[in-house]
């Protein structure tokens, strides 16, 4: 059974930082591209960042470039999202997702998803 479990969300003031983790099990992690998405109330899932299975290629949404960094530890089957200089508009539920042998900007193109972790940035 494949599981993706996010952690690290919380309440932070604008300008602060958080590090999200997504621990996976039940899949060959090194064969999966990993993505982070977010969903604010009343909105669609929004692409945040993604990293290829090899760790060599990354992609970021323009809104987070220079502030967020995606990384992965294939030995720990875990992907991370370091979020710096947080803004109130970053408030959302953040989801990690896994896609076999590829990455995508589209949430529905992934094979597996986590349950999400809430990030709230106060002004």
Describe the protein.
It is a single chain. The protein has 123 residues and is mainly beta. Helix content is 0%, strand content 51%. Strands 2, 4, 5, 6, 9, 10 and 11 form a 7-stranded mixed beta sheet that branches. Strands 1-3-8-7 form a 4-stranded antiparallel beta sheet, with no helix packed on it. A hairpin with a 6-residue loop joins strand 5 and strand 6.
Low-pLDDT regions: none
Mean pLDDT: 97
Radius of gyration: 13 Å
Structural class: mainly beta
What is the number of strand segments? 11
- What fraction of the residues are assigned to beta strands by DSSP? over 45%
Outline type: globular
Terminus-to-terminus distance: 40 Å
Order of helices and strands: EEEEEEEEEEE
Query: What percent of the residues sit in helical stretches (DSSP H or I)?
Result: under 10%
Number of helices: 0
Please describe the structure with a list of short key phrases separated by commas or semicolons.
single chain; 123 residues; mainly beta; seven-stranded mixed sheet; four-stranded antiparallel sheet
Give a summary of the structure in a few sentences.
This protein is an all-beta fold. 0% of the residues lie in helices and 51% in strands.
Topology, please?
Elements (H helix, E strand, L loop, with lengths): L2 E5 L2 E4 L4 E8 L6 E8 L6 E6 L6 E3 L7 E6 L4 E6 L8 E9 L11 E2 L3 E6 L1
Parallel strand pairs: 2-11
Antiparallel strand pairs: 1-3, 3-8, 4-5, 4-9, 5-6, 7-8, 9-10, 9-11
